[in-house]
Structures are given as C-alpha cells and as structure tokens.
Design a protein that fits this description.
about 170 residues; alpha/beta; Dihydrofolate Reductase, subunit A; three-stranded parallel sheet; about 20% strand
C-alpha cells in the first residue's frame, strides 16, 4: 500500500502470454487510484480477497479480476491451487516481510532472490525482509545453498535455493 507498486514485467523478454499480477489483499484495501487498479486494462490483475464486496465491485469495474473466498489471501495453498488451475506455473512473490514470511512458514519457497542497495535504513521499527516464525537456534535456521551474487548497477542481487529439508 505504501509503495504503490506497478508489478509489471520490465525484462523485455518475449512472453507466450501476458504475465498476471496477483495481489493478496485480504480486506480489499487496494485503492482505486493505485497503479495496479489504473493499469488493469494494460496488464492483468488478479486479486484474492475475503474483504468487502463493495470495494471488490469497484475494483472489478476497473478490470481487476476478483477471487473471493472465506479464507481470502491467507490460505496460500488455495491461492496457489487456483493459480495452478489457471495454468500459472511460477510465482514471483514481491511483497513485504509478512507475506514473504508466510511463504517461508508454509514451506512454499523454491528460490530466493534479495536485492541489497548500498544504503542502511535500520532502526528499531524498520521493516524486515522476512517476518516469519523464525528459528530459536542457529541450527534450526532456514539454510540456503547454491548462492550466487551479481552486481546490478549499484545494487547486489543475491540468489539462492533452500537447502534440502531446510525450514521444514
């Protein structure tokens, strides 16, 4: 909500079919004036929610496709099952620490990419990249393997894969 992301593909790669921007908005709080809402005609937006039917109806008028369910966006397995039913084979999760943490906690991570900018935000209340159940001991931490690091302009891109059995 704060970032007002566009979530469009800027890779320049040819695609067989358009990429779908999937939004997990449990309370249908996405503003009508958001970049996602305003550009739903240009690139598909699929929103999972259990929120207000009125808010969802207004978003539908802007061509945002709404998937309503009792569990809304909180049931990640149901969300992924619906995406699979629509023949969406891979998902890039780009969100806050709580969403990332939910995917970690559910064991639904196949690959991790972090971008690190040359700046320090910090602070006692600064957002974390992953807000999950975490590990009480280092031995129980989510382990990564096949780690690669690339420089992207001034930023670093770190890509890794969960170690077998890690975080489960």
């Amino acid at each position: 909500m704060t970032d007002d992301p566009l979530l469009t593909d800027r890779s320049g790669k040819a695609r067989r079919r358009p990429l779908v921007r999937v939004v997990l908005d449990d309370r249908s709080r996405t503003p009508l004036g958001s970049q996602l809402s305003r550009t739903a005609n240009e690139a598909p937006v699929l929103m999972f929610t259990s929120g207000s039917a009125d808010a969802a109806t207004r978003l539908k008028e802007l061509n945002v496709e709404i998937v309503r369910s009792e569990h809304g966006a909180r049931d990640l397995s149901a969300v992924l099952a619906e995406l699979s039913r629509r023949e969406i084979q891979s998902v890039l999760v780009e969100g806050g620490g709580v969403l990332a943490g939910a995917f970690f906690d559910a064991g639904l991570i196949d690959k991790i990419t972090f971008f690190i900018a040359p700046m320090i935000i910090g602070g006692m209340h600064a957002p974390s990249a992953v807000v999950s159940a975490g590990a009480e001991r280092i031995a129980d931490a989510f382990q990564l393997e096949r780690v690669s690091v690339e420089q992207r302009g001034p930023d670093l891109e770190i890509t890794a894969y969960p170690a077998t059995g890690s975080g489960q």
